Amino acid sequence: MAILIERRDPLTQAQGVEAGYAQTARRWPSQPLVRRPHTPAELSGPRVARRLPQVRGDLAGHGDKRAIGQLIRLRVRVLDEDGAPLPGAVVEAWHCNAAGKYIHPNDTHDAPVDPNFYGAARMVAGDSGLVELRTVKPGAYPVPDTNGWWRPPHVHFSVWGRVWLSRLVTQMFFPGEPLNEADAILMAIRDPEARNRCLARLVPSRTSELIYEYQLVVRGRKATARMP
Amino acid sequence: MSRLVPTAEMTLGPFFPREFAEGVNDLAVGSSNAIEITGRVTELDGRALDNVILEIWQADAAGRFDSPDFLGWGRAATDAQGNYLFRTVRPGAIPGRAPHVNFLILYSGLMRQLQTVMFFDDADDPVLQAVEQARRKRLIGERISANSYRFDIRLRGGEETPFFDD
Questions:
Q1: What pLDDT score does A173 carry?
Q2: Which ipTM score applies to this complex?
Q3: How far out from the chain centre does Cα B112 lie?
């Protein structure tokens, strides 16, 4: 199945250097990115499930081992640009605890670690491209060495699509958070609709968990999908 | 069928789980003809970067991308001195392409993934030829010994590595 990858749209994808995010000016290349032809090397991709085991799918725990915070369930569908689900897609997710603290030695934020919260999951999408993650809602936290920039609650995702060029690393945000509109990472997406699609959708729940739905759309569509 | 817009890419951030980058930088497990690719990742002013995540994708020694015996994918993180290490096999040529290793770079301060390619010599390759001549040498791994290569990655400034847009 031939896959087409089209050039990124600068309205729906962040550009390299953002004024509100100082590190971008030290790390994004100063030279223009080079256009290259796409060959089987770029339009094939690794079957990473062979190497990367599934880990967790539940970060919140149970009983007296339950993580502190608002219990949530994320229902995330992995699709390609044709809207076709990607069963078997590997999805990594990670986020901070309800107090805004990551399980990572480099996190210096003065917030408590939650012994019952882990913070990292790896899942494989089912038949309809669905992955589900039970966890607690992450907190906000201040970014060190900035003038009052607080990251809004967000969940990181890393996804493998059909081919090497469909690799997607992104963040999902929560609706109605006042910090969203001041976040240099979310606001780097210039198109308001594209930005809106980075917010999870709260759906009715009759269980003890708040349920959010989300879509992860990886790059690539079937070459036959568009006729002249 | 209506067309969906790809989800906006965002930075990996500084807190990628350590466990996700451990134990997967050896692509050549069980192979007796492995090579090592090492290098240092730096930013503007040459400062070394800690915990940069690099992923590679390459053909097997016979130039196949779908080998049942060789996944062709690996992930490494830089240490506090900015150094990374992959153990792999030297990829074979594929039709129309010289032997090469695709690199993906993810890090805080990178709003999107960066893509570059390591070649083994100044080969006749359409991706290498897409780069202006004066910068091509930045994409050629330096042979240190019979089975080890060095490929430094400078994100910005100085001897900046060429990166690709797709």
A1: 98
A2: 0.96
A3: 15
